[in-house]
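Regulator of sirC expression with transglutaminase-like and TPR domain: structure, please.
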Amino acid sequence: MNEQELKALISLLDDPDAEIYQALEDKLITCGPEVIPMLEQSWEESFDVLLQGRVEQIIHKIQFNQVTHDLQLWKISNQDDLLGGLLIVNRYQYPNLPEEEVYTKLAELRRSAWYYLMYEMSPIEKVKLLNNVLFREFGLSGNTSDYHAPQNSFINKVLESKKGNPISLACIYSLVAQRLDIPIYGVNLPKHFVLAYMKEENPEEVLFYINVFNRGQIMREDDIVAFLHQLNLPASEEYMKPCDNLSIIKRVLRNLVAAYNHIDNVEKRQEVQLLLDLLEQN
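Here you go.
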């Protein structure tokens, strides 16, 4: 479809006939993201509230379809890239975010830690260094005052506000650590996402755990077992060993479903549930 045809379709979006509008919407959505600049231009040039509302709706549907597509592709071929998965989730709420801002901030945090990192440091000393850079110097902290807020699950907002939930803080911490070749990975502990520092000589064995929501507090295996005991759950590998990135992104989406449910945003809750369902499929 050429530009003139697209402009003609967009000019008809104020048609009061619902069936005509539905046909127009379907055609424009199939055009994909390429049509968004023209839709945005028509929104800016129009004073028609009906047309503007319909344009917003079509843009959102196109962007949501793109997020769905990107997430499917990530699941199939790019699960090793945790940050890539987090940024796709981010695009659901912030489709126009310049994502290089997130890469730049993480690179700055890595550089700040690398400057002080010494080869002979013990694992505990490395964690103390990361804690100092991320929590004291940068100011990252748990959002205890608004724990259920949706923004706690979007990495750009967490880096901007410096406040997040356990899993978003853990993702930032582990992404910085892994960029420094420090073997720290996420553990899918029920009710509270934590990190595990793995033994360098035996990558399958946990050295200790890190509670990022409590400013990098170091925890032993006994602490995790006791926590699981309180929840009447077994001390199984599922809860005590690092999980894969797919499990992390699923948990981020579950948190978002709960967050939108908490603020009674039914539409967003349903859309995020669709994204979660997509990842749950075999």
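Notes: Strands lie at 141-142, 163-164, 184-187, 194-198, 206-211, 217-219.
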